[in-house]
Amino acid sequence: MPDPTTKLSEDDRFELAQRASMASRAAKPLMPLALGGLALVVGLIALLWTSMARAEAVRNLGSQQRTLDRVVAIEQSFAAIETRKNQGATGVHEPLPDILSRLERAATDVGMAKPAFPQDRADDQQGVIDRRLTYTVRDEPLETTLAWIDLAMQRIPGLEVHDIKLVISPSGRGGNTENSWIVTVTLARWERPS
Known about the structure:
The protein is α+β, with helices and mostly antiparallel strands and 194 residues long. Helix content is 52%, strand content 21%. It has a 4-stranded antiparallel sheet, covered by helices on one side. The longest helix is centred in the first third of the chain and has 57 residues, at 31-87. The chain is rod-shaped, with a radius of gyration of 40 Å. The N and C termini lie far apart (135 Å).
């Protein structure tokens, strides 16, 4: 039954209520809300990415710091070797037939594996033998290799480092992810002819 106070029928009032509801929805824009949500998601992704990049940079910095510390320790070891070399008088010494076994013993005494057989060269320099033993040491800690060289120089009279070369190897033994070193060292000794 139509409402006596209004001239609109029930259908007209229903249609009018639907139009008002649609106008009300149109007056509440969803686009800014959707854009705000999208910006929030993009911001969270950017935050996650930058935090991952920062964590990687911190790991790299730590690795570089450890490498720097090792290089400084090596430099100090070289300085100590050079000082000892300058203090001792190098001269001509009697030949040592067991020099290789002495070097092997020094290696095992500092915790190294038995070193591979060296390249052994003996040159006659005006009646004096310049003997040079070149070793290539792989997959041993650098500190251990330097301790071996130091101990060998203490135990073998006249033994000195003629040349040393350090090369960083990208992979270590046994799946170690840290870098390892390849050390090529030439040990020299002046000997009398036998």
